[in-house]
Amino acid sequence: MIEQVGDFKETLSLQTPDILEQTISQLVQPAKTEPKISKQRIRSTLRASTLDGVFATIFSFTTGGVLLSNFLLELGATSVEIGILSAIPMLVNLLQPLGAYLADRSTSRHWYNLWIFGASRLLWLLLVGAIAAASWHYTDGSGLLEWTLAIVFVTSLLGAFASANWFSWMTAVVPHRLRGRYFGLRNSATTLISLLGVPLMGAGVSAWGADPVVGYGVVLLFGVAAGMFSLAFQFWMVDVNPQARSKQFSNGKVSEKTAENHKNFVPAVLKDVNFLRFIAYFTVWTFAVNLSAPFFNIYLLKDLNLDVSLVTIYSSLSAGANLLLLMFWGKLADRLGNRPLLIAVGLLVAVTPVLWLGIGNRPIALWVWLPLLHLLAGTTLGAIDLCTNNIQMEIVPIENPSTYFAIASAISGVAGACGTTAGGFLAEFPGMSLGGLFAISTAVRLLALLPLLFLREPRSLPLGTLVPAFLPFKFDRESSTPNKNVL
């Protein structure tokens, strides 16, 4: 583990010549779509984007995940209320097409991103104030649940206006041939922070003993400060002007068919069969995952009555497994494509919920089975998230990616919101247990993988290439003897 972290720190310095020089050469070649950018600016952009992700992750796990779930349970929230709360950030994704429209008409990806995310993160200070007021007996603490619901709704609403803008910004500054490796590196950095930070935050909440609500308020204040600090690093990133990019395409660099699609965008999307296949997969998959995802921690905290500090340790195991394999998944995605990984790894993710069935609070479950399940989840979900983001960048048109990203997020957001809401009601349904909910989630996840069999991805290799990719040697087809040349 120590050697892995050491290797990661060496990579994070961005001094590795192969990856860095390939990245720079891709970005500073004679401009076909963007002006020439100096090597120093590219180094600053990649380094700043990674640090931005690191501090944004601290904000994310203090305003969501197991820490927020435990806070809601301390306030007496039911499974239905937790399901609705989890649905809010996904439901507001319906506004992402409008956000993409506004972002594409701005003159700076950076400043648009800064104002939207800055406002949404600062609003969490209202919840910090409400917790402080309740602890000092200035207000009734019973209203904190309503405060939390309102703040999650408003901040998610604002975030929906900037998500597609951030995606388009990353698409413009990271070459498609190196996206797997770079985002694998970036995600490794954020995962390392989750590995270290989540248990520390959980221990901080537990340290307040009789009043963990106040403990969460202190942790939340620290998370908001980290979220604002992350936005400061974006000043060292290369900005992109959507208007200048659009003008370049209008100067004859776009085909007549693409220009026509700009005028009739909705018909163009509906005619893009490959994109619709991705939407079918993404929609059903998001519904299936969110049908059960918010309730794994609820199962541990409520049904098994485990302490939040132990649950955060489990989350750290997932983060650790994610960290160790993200760079591997990124390199493999660059070499084989994202589609075969989504299918192969998706099968493992699909059957994971049924492995939770029958778990009790016996010692073998607490110290062996549950850690193994979290290790499996961290290993596989990291690959799914990475490849899902990258495959979108591969299959959407380069001329106006923001709107495609927004449509995908909006549709999948509604599906995810329906999933968490349905999961909350099913969990409270008479005769239905969380185990039954997990089994339903597995069945729908398997169904979601079918559209990927028909999806086409540029540079994607056949699914059968995954088998030799995982072997330490490859076979000679004629002699059927192993060739020790490592892939």
Give a structural overview.
This protein has 487 residues and is mainly alpha-helical. The protein has one domain: MFS general substrate transporter like domains (Growth Hormone, Chain: A, Up-down Bundle). Helices cover 75% and strands 1% of the residues. It has 23 helices and two strands. The chain has a two-stranded antiparallel ribbon. The protein starts with a helix and ends with a strand.
Primary descriptors:
single chain; 487 residues; mainly alpha; Growth Hormone, Chain: A; two-stranded antiparallel ribbon; 23 helices; globular; disordered N terminus; disordered C terminus
Brief digest:
The protein has a single domain, classed as MFS general substrate transporter like domains (Growth Hormone, Chain: A, Up-down Bundle).
Topology, element by element:
Blueprint lengths: L1 H11 L4 H12 L10 H24 L2 H10 L4 H13 L4 H9 L4 H14 L1 H12 L8 H17 L2 H11 L5 H28 L5 H22 L8 H12 L2 H8 L1 H7 L1 H20 L1 H10 L4 H29 L1 H14 L11 H33 L5 H28 L5 H15 L17 H4 L4 E2 L6 E2 L4
Antiparallel strand pairs: 1-2
Helix pairs in contact: 1-11, 3-11, 3-12, 4-17, 5-9, 5-21, 6-21, 7-9, 7-10, 7-12, 8-9, 8-12, 10-21, 11-12, 11-18, 11-20, 14-15, 16-21, 16-22, 18-19, 18-20, 19-20, 19-22
For this structure, what is the CATH class? Mainly Alpha
Uncertain regions spanning at least 5 consecutive residues: 1-35, 252-263, 472-487
Estimate percent helicity: over 70%
Helix segment count?
23
Total tally of structural domains: 1
CATH-level-2 architecture: Up-down Bundle
How much of the polypeptide forms β-strand, as a percent range?
A: under 5%
Q: Tell me the strand order in the biggest sheet.
A: 1-2
Class of secondary structure makeup: mainly alpha
Question: N-to-C SSE series?
Answer: HHHHHHHHHHHHHHHHHHHHHHHEE
The quaternary structure here is single chain
What is the C-alpha radius of gyration, as a whole number of Å? 23 Å
Envelope shape: globular
Could you give the distance between the termini?
A: 24 Å
The major β-sheet equals: 2 strands, antiparallel
The CATH topology assignment is: Growth Hormone, Chain: A
